[in-house]
Automatic annotation (TrEMBL), chains A, B, C:
Protein source organism: Rhizobium aethiopicum
Domain Periplasmic copper-binding protein NosD beta helix: 160-308
SUPFAM superfamilies the record matches: Pectin lyase-like
Keywords: Lyase, Transferase
Protein name: Inulin fructotransferase (DFA-I-forming)
Lineage: Bacteria, Pseudomonadati, Pseudomonadota, Alphaproteobacteria, Hyphomicrobiales
Group of enzyme by EC: lyase
Amino acid sequence: MVSENCYDVTKYPTGNPREDIGAVINNIIADIKNRQAVVDVNDGGKPGSVIYIPPGDYRLVTQVVIDVSYLKIVGSGHGFTSSSIRFNTPVGELAHWHEVWPGGSRILVDISPEAADGEAAGAAFYVKRNGNPRISSVEFADFCIDGLHFIDDGSGQDDAENTYRNGKTGIYVGSANDSFRITGMGLIYLEHGVTVHDADALAIDNNFIAECGNCIELKGMGQASRIANNFVGAGYRGHSIYAENYAGILVSSNNVFPRGASSVHFSGVVRSSVTGNRFHSFYPGMLVFAANCCENLVSSNHFLRDREPWAPMQKYDNGLDDLFGLLQIDGSNNSLIANHISHTIDTQYIKPPAAKPVIINVVSGSGNYIANNHIVATTEIPQKDGSDTPNSACFSTQVSALLSIGNSTSLDVTTVLVQKASVRNTVLDSGNAEQVVMDRTVNAFRGTPAPGQ
Amino acid sequence: MVSENCYDVTKYPTGNPREDIGAVINNIIADIKNRQAVVDVNDGGKPGSVIYIPPGDYRLVTQVVIDVSYLKIVGSGHGFTSSSIRFNTPVGELAHWHEVWPGGSRILVDISPEAADGEAAGAAFYVKRNGNPRISSVEFADFCIDGLHFIDDGSGQDDAENTYRNGKTGIYVGSANDSFRITGMGLIYLEHGVTVHDADALAIDNNFIAECGNCIELKGMGQASRIANNFVGAGYRGHSIYAENYAGILVSSNNVFPRGASSVHFSGVVRSSVTGNRFHSFYPGMLVFAANCCENLVSSNHFLRDREPWAPMQKYDNGLDDLFGLLQIDGSNNSLIANHISHTIDTQYIKPPAAKPVIINVVSGSGNYIANNHIVATTEIPQKDGSDTPNSACFSTQVSALLSIGNSTSLDVTTVLVQKASVRNTVLDSGNAEQVVMDRTVNAFRGTPAPGQ
Amino acid sequence: MVSENCYDVTKYPTGNPREDIGAVINNIIADIKNRQAVVDVNDGGKPGSVIYIPPGDYRLVTQVVIDVSYLKIVGSGHGFTSSSIRFNTPVGELAHWHEVWPGGSRILVDISPEAADGEAAGAAFYVKRNGNPRISSVEFADFCIDGLHFIDDGSGQDDAENTYRNGKTGIYVGSANDSFRITGMGLIYLEHGVTVHDADALAIDNNFIAECGNCIELKGMGQASRIANNFVGAGYRGHSIYAENYAGILVSSNNVFPRGASSVHFSGVVRSSVTGNRFHSFYPGMLVFAANCCENLVSSNHFLRDREPWAPMQKYDNGLDDLFGLLQIDGSNNSLIANHISHTIDTQYIKPPAAKPVIINVVSGSGNYIANNHIVATTEIPQKDGSDTPNSACFSTQVSALLSIGNSTSLDVTTVLVQKASVRNTVLDSGNAEQVVMDRTVNAFRGTPAPGQ
């Protein structure tokens, strides 16, 4: 052992990390608490520890419970691969595959909670501490948490591996916390990837959190946190990035891919930023501000919505129709500035049929400022239906769909709709007079100029 | 030892890292120089080394002096916790706390310099090398530098731990340098966090530098550097991010919280970017461009100024009044585009009394381009005065203040003021004709449209 | 050895990493494949491994061939220093230098491929695997790949070390791949830094890739990738960031410095983002969208073009003249919003002589949206010619040039030129009626207001 505060799960004398890494890590945490028992020794005494998980497969049967500050759990590989493609590939094809499971420093979550026990019960890593101070500087870095399988959802679809449900959570933080870091992780096939309550100065950076029911969820209330430079993509039921009652969040430079019922869903979030992200979705409601979100900035983002091109998932969606708004805003004094929004869909898939899709839908509140957004709406180039394409060809199917722009035609949309309940908004250069629908006696408007004017 | 170029401070045979990690690291550096003495051996010969600091408490009595390139000093934990909350909590409460000090791979700075010796004398890590080439690729990663205490400032306030003064600096780079990296660090209770002179291609990324008198200071002259994805928050006297005579800096995706006399202060800085940041401040002067800053871009940032809600700090501020400008610009050809600015303050706290606060104040120069900034000015919801709230409840106090937007009313402000000394500026869609004050015969203007126009 | 899946190149029993680290790593990969031979054992079985390269100089004679997923190769130092300055410094001066080579965990690429063998033959690291699934989660982190020398290019210039040619590539990925990460690397003096074909969810973050012929090249076709927070700067012949036939790329927060024939060159790229970057170039054609790039967003970037101030490189350029466009756009429905563009050059260096430089040149396509770009064009302050400055003073020469803004005068330019082939574009607030040249009967226009209007 390099130092008394450096642990390696494969070298710890108690427990077998291959069979239950959870028990091993809990033993290590008990050892840390035992060794670092005094609150203040010579201006210190509780520096925490680092626990290393070498590359390998480790089953987790016992939930890890973290109640010490300054604990860093670190691996050497995020280990992401697409389990979704694998589970939608015929067994016959799989026989020729090089590998079928994620890898790296990989934790196989074997917890099978009862739904009644709640999310925390299904968490591989559960952080909770009462009292003061808030638990601080717990770090998760560079390892993989794999929920292995989704389970049947009772819908009768007989499509268990595509339900995005299994009651498992990767990391669940249940009490107020400060200066946590979740970086470089790979999270996959979990119903919830990362759920954090009551965070202050939380960093969720450079992770790969995909093929999870929900990816990143900030709950309770909190402030001054950052979700940046992640690859994220939830299931069709869930949120890619969700926050409620937070202030001062920075959602920046993420590449958020489908499916995801939403790319970003804020509820009662204020004074936060969504900037410089690339969002891709298959459904309306890519960005939702609900429950009076105020004074947020949405700028320099690229939004793309097209239709699911991959056959195994075409039967699913998030249930919203094209009148919901690709972006829906409930709240006041928000800023939507300098975004590019591409909306491309063949008219046959518009819901309700023959509707004119709404891109930005302001449903309530006042004082929102919507300026210099470039909205490009086109009918999609019909793709071949995919039924003759092997499901394993998800990548080429998706990229081909994305690249096939050449001879699309423009689609008639409402670029901005301000509902009657909302007033004193300003809409500038985000569509012409036909495309922007609102009461101009109570909202300010300047249409994008047209040629020849 | 894994390799001759890998050191662990706890395993090095000379010195005791618990008592003086500075002496140990200096011994290691001497060993590196001794072993890597020849400039060019078989196309190499001076690859440097890595020095590992395991989690633990390490006093630093002797200043570390770094004069070799390619030295990486790395720990396993940034170890941040709020010492400010702790030092403002009654001793009686502290008795029940889980821990009271920062942690991780933590260096306790025991240097007590005389003020007359200058900043370098108080630095835990002092980098300096004369001659050619510039010292290159020194890296600091993932450890904690803790200044432990602030000291009385002679003001008679008897509030030593809130002075942000102790003469200590975390990392001080005193000579020209190239391709340095400071990442993942935790810096706390230092009068100066990171001070770098004459940098080229410096990266300061993903750090937690807070509760320091000043956080990041770039001095001398330099270019092409990046300050990104940090959590930063200086004391009420100091700068969160400061630069002078630099070109081509990218300040991006930082979450800068109060207090900080400024969030960003540039002096003579040119052709640099401040984009995609979230800034929160309690005082005017959040962003200051001084001494003829030119051709800089400020875009897609979220600025929020409200009033200090936490009782122990309400007696301090940065001394500026609301006519100074929340952003003050001295210089030419700068661009301020697509920012959201929230300014919320109860009228009783406006200084001078009954003044109309200025948001963007252009004090000199010409050719600045100020467009599509959304300025939201409101009176703050009166909070309870906090005197009955325990000081340890800083988090809930702050978040409650931030979230309490509901029934605020709008505040009359000057959104843009262009002083007479400044001409040929362009102000577009950043306020109406009453809110933008300037000589329109020498500056260009287009007001934000009003409803019904 | 910490664990069976953790390797250290200096401890592996077969081969000598100082003489040929390539052979050692290939032996390790063979061992991994031998040990992890079964596709599915107990829900796992192929977690991959981590290979550690301690700081040191390691020659690479044998190309590393990677065909296993979840392999992480990691060092402890990116080791960048400027070889360009060193090779342009007289030998007499070098005798006094502290060090002359890059360092850190440094690989010296000794492969000398025949040009006829193609790029892959000259790669230090060659990743390729056929069949399914795509190779996943290979990671390169925190080490240095040094091509050592450039070679004579037959031009008769007798300036071999400045040719940016040697047939060497740092990392070459030749087959479809998923969730790769290239982070924290230092790449130098390679004709090609990183070349990746057919990537999905690739992350190229926080690297230092400079003084390479080309830095980052995405080829074939791919999607949903990120190039963020890098320092990048190619040679005058090559691309700093290049992509072809990709969708959903996010190029974010990079600091791209000269020289580079282009800072960003996209060919047939769609629905991608270039946001929040700082670009600096010495030539026209900083950003090129070729071959029908569509629906891309370019926002919140800082572009600076000035003249090469460093004597040894003043004889080179990328061959383009000032009518090419500092940014050239071939494609439809792109968005250029909220960028700052500084163009500063002494009139004597404009090509063709007396031409009016073009800043944004839309050469084909339709529906592009160009709004709120602030274009600052000035004549450069004449610098001393540099002939009396030592070449090693590259840093001070460059920074002095950048900072010398004071008394520049404005330069007459075409801020936006829309060629006849391109229609239905919208140009707003990006220049006045004289500065924006296009057919206003088929394109929409609103000029930046002038003072007194």
